[in-house]
Predict the 3D structure of the following.
Amino acid sequence: MSDKNEGLSKAREIYLNRSQRARELKAAGRRIVGYPCVYVPVEILTALDLVPFQTCGEMKEPISEASRVLPGSFCPVMRSCLDCALKGKHDFLDGMATIHSSDPQEKTARIWQSYTNYPYFHFIDMPITVRPEALEYFKNQLNDFGKTLEAFAGRKLSTDNLAEAVRSHNRQRGLVRELFELTKSSPPRISGTEIVQVVRALTSLPVLEGNDLLAEVIAEVRSRSNGPEKKSARLLIWGSTVDDADVMQVLEANANVVVNESCGGLRAYRGEVKLSNDLFEGLASYYLKEITCARTFRQASLGETKKDYARDLQSRFGHLQKMIKEWRINGVMMLLVRYCDPFAFEMPSLKDYLDSLGIPSTYIEYDYTAGSIAPLRTRVEAFVETLG
Amino acid sequence: MASEKRKKAINRLQSMYPLRAKVNETYLKSIEAIQAGKPAVWAMLNFYYGDPILKAMDIEVVYPENYGAIAAATGVARQFLDRADAEGFPTHLCGYSLTTLGYACRMMKDLKGQIPPEAPLGGMPKPLFLLSSAAICDARYKWFQALGRYMDVPVWPLESPTPGIREFFMEGYYDRMVKLGVQHLRDFVAFVERMVGRKMDWDKLEETANLMIEVNRVWHEVNELRKARPCPMHSRDFWSAMPAALFLAGDLQDSLKLYQDMYKEVKARVDSHTGAIAEEKYRVVFAELPPWHSLGFFDKLAERGWNFVVESFGYHPPIPIDLSKVSDPLERITRFSLQFFAGYYQDALKQKVLGGTSAYPYLKYVREWKCDGALLHPLISCRSASTHLPYVSDMLMHQLKVPSLIVEGDIVDLRLFNPDDALARAEPFEETMEHYRKMRREAGFNW
Amino acid sequence: MPIRGKSLMYFAGVDIGSTMTKVVMIDEAGDLVSAIKGPTGPEYRRLANEVMQRALEQAGLDIDQVSYIVATGYGRLRVPFADKQITELSCHARGVSSLFPTVRTAIDIGGQDAKCMKIRDGKLVTFVMNDKCAAGTGRFLEVTAATLGIKLEDMGELSLKATKKIQISNLCTIFAQQEIVALLSRGERVEDILAGLHDALASRVAALARRLNIEPDVVLTGGVAKNIGIVQAMKENLGCEVMVPEEPLLTGALGAALLAREAYMKATASGEKLSTKPRRLERATFFG
Amino acid sequence: MAWFMGIDIGSAYSKGVILKGLELVAWHIIISGANYRASAETIRAKLLEKSGLTWSDICGVVATGCGADNVHFAGQKASDVICTARGINSVFPRVRTVIDVACQATKVIQLNEVGIVTNFAVSEKCAAGGGRFIEVIANVLRVNLRDFAALAAKSKSPVTLATSCAVFGESEVITRISEGAPAEDIAAGANKALATRISSLVARLEPAQPCAVCGGGALNTTLVKSIETELNIKLLLPPQPQIISALGAAVMAVAAGNSQSNRRV
């Protein structure tokens, strides 16, 4: 092959050694603020010239430190995140920005704060509904977040800087969507595994560097001749977290994963923050309403006094219908991380919805450890065999 | 002989029985009313926030969380759990939620809305609407949302702000929580009015709110008396008496009187140095839900001199707060409900314990109730009641030199709690508590 | 030793499970020519070779006479001489329906997991699998047999002697085991514990199967199907008749062989050439 | 002359000792099996046989372990935690922390100079913190438990087993096998995984030294080494690590002294 895939190999390098760039920037005098969940509005960090770094879990790392402070039957992703932190893998961080996107996030955040002492630590509370009073409350939460960050960064948060940051991050969202456009063809021009590596790389880089990487990857992928081969099915993965290339490789064993609707994939990039004269309004509304994670309570109409199950499903899962059509999906894999309650409660209803669309689906569970990868393989391959 | 001794092991409060009787009586009344066709609502433990509204609107309420415990205790839970499994709900979800989902599926799919004959205590009829809450365990609103698969009834999820301890003290934070709470409650009242086709009787709400606050104030005072040595009231009496204050079960006017009687009895015991057990050797705090099915276990420990003097903050009344100046009953309710955890924040910040709502109160209790040890009871399928416990035991040890005994159990898989196992741990734990008693003295603690 | 002159083509299915390795060989007409079982150990490849060798000997064949080979099961990717890999679910479905043409639901309880398969015209339509966390697997029984100090194969008969059914917590293998220890120390009878145990496992698997609203005929396969106690408990928990193949361990390998045959026939019919692996049984192991 | 008996009926093995004063006269170990009462009987018979004593020579019997109730001839029952503490104290009086790696769970016990428990922790049910985990892996590897340590010792590069649940740990091991990982690396990996879990349990108590290890798991020399490396301390190993709890039970029988209530006929 003549293709060099420099952008992709760069992304893979960063994926394999996520903290390297952050350490370089730290050495160069930049300040790094970690965040464990895509619900943290990184725009505010960027606007204050702080480097956002998503603290992810590591499936291959056995949990030791975290098992002293968290029980076994607990979100394994957050256990793993905290374990890495307690083992000092994030020793380059100047602070942490945490958020109440779900109970495990909230509870882990507090324990994280108690067992570490970063110069900066903030916890953002987040409502569960999209009601007006909830949105108002959340907007004020983001205001407080901005205030504590200003104090930490020792500079004011100017409207221009924030607007600029919002633009940059919106551009990143746009580029990621463009990347996923490249999986609409058959065979896709880029594999789900490659995309996981790229997306994970983005969450460990300053936004502009991430955008450059994306631009490079998109350009080379467009013209590559060594893309993934056509496999017997085109799958959509739906779940809370699919951020490990090895897991994705197993999911792609005999199929093409063309949409990864999880927070290791498209989910955090599907919408855009509205640029209005009230930027915090825009941020609050984007993060509370636009990110389609199971953690937010959605219903057909606010405060409805009647329940219509079909309309209810549409309001909760409607966004998948469009994807299924546009990406010509012929199978959906509902991938649950064990002990992820918000998603676990969703399973039967989502299956009802997919059945109503006539799309075959299967529910697969893994516990975010290396040991759970192999059992995935048989389930995935068998599912694809039933599609063929 | 032994059984006789056992009966005497814990000196139960006489004033608890009429209170418990009243609660059971109103529970049965409510079932009769419901069976006679009066609309009922399924609600979750919502910590004084939604309950007073329902009470003022004279709506019958059933609590699936309590029902889950009943189903487990009566041994019928298994079939509902298997049914939920067959429906495709992951087996590691909260046992109470799976019980309810299996129950709803059976009732609505097999029996066209009829209450399953095997359901204990009259079962739970199809509700008018569902009231869920995000307080303490925020996955619960997904549980009631999932019920929509079986019942065409609307659900109202109550918001429950959960601030960080430092963040809570930022300028205007508390007021914003109140603003959210009041507006949210106002909309909820409108929703309830639409559902029942009646208007809210605001005078009744006023009265209900005030009674709720007063009942809980008295109940708080009763528990304050338990700081005395020997402790006059055992956790078993707390759990028996708790529903009237926590769920507002029963008539609040009656409850107030009965809690006042309880105060008198406990006060009398304090004055006469009468303990809840014969010989108080160890003062112990109990963490989270007790093993309802084998409470006899506490009698065995009582024989060994273990007095359970205080328990999880989650079931304790809020620390009293003066709300007499607050004119709007909705705001009074909101502030009271927020006080349930916010009441601890000032102190938590002083102690620099940022480990969160569920963890801090244990330090306060252990210090003020002068506990020698903590019995922590993590529940395999109830993450919210378990997650913070390792942290709690770590804090108790490092800040107060108080050891913890961890005994695992579950809320529906009752056999996971092994009393013999637990009792085998009691003896070495006594040696441990003795040891740390010395350590505390050396470190200058006063107990 | 049978002489196989009449058939020109032979097909093999190799099923490497977590505990047992099985090989089934069929001829052109799809008739069985050999079936061999052996334990799976840490040396998958060598055992695959050995079992294959024995199967060939039993069939009186040389490996070059085998036209197409399909590998299935946990170790399917570790069979160097296999031409194609297919999951055990599709293979069980195919194998079971060749033995019971009227089957609609197949339940396979293996050592690592339990599978329930919906079958239409011999093909796998949909399935559910649970892992051992739900205790719905053969390992559940193995561990218990170890705890009780009895032989796995005796469990079934023993459980039929039960006078009562002790309810066992069925959350997890580990918990169940701790519970059994407690029951033993309380002096409960082994028979009664086993009866409860079988019922616990059956109820877990039945609940799993119900996710696919079970239709008769129902067939139970996998090593556990040899346990009469389980078969009884499954009947009770499913509330319907349950059929069991004579050799429940072999349905996967049989299905693999049949799928090998079909794939090969289909290809030759359409004139395309299927790629096959070199027919060598090299003695390579992970250790040598 | 006064002889005392300690019986420990565990979920996997039953152990017993006879003490004369504090001197070990006889000890015996058998597989517990399904009938604990019978196991207790066998142990008693064997101990008397080995020591050449008769039942009437025994002045006191203390039983411990999950099957203690089945030792019908015991005068009293004692907690396994206390027995382990007293037992290790009688062997190593200076030891302040003992790690008891039993089949079902691991216990970390801190004790003072007279064997009184000062703190203890037991591994989480869900965390596969016991020797059973190794048994399961040995079974998958088709190696005898006795040879497991030796096999693990051969390993140059132990595999990393990330799963904390024994049940999934087994799946993970089977995967590694099918990926072609050598048995010795898997054995070593399993030891390392268990050692990691045990170490974080120990770390929970911030152990005082010197530190000893006992229970069936202590016979697994590579496991013990892994724990030593994890905690970066030296672990003392008693001669018969499996009988420490039974020994402690006997010590308690001695302490209870020569009174009729200390044994049942």
In short: Chain A has a mean pLDDT of 94. The radius of gyration of chain A is 20 Å. The CA atoms of residues 181 and 331 of chain A lie 18 Å apart. Strands of chain A lie at 31-35, 50-54, 95-99, 120-124, 234-239, 256-261, 331-337, 361-366.
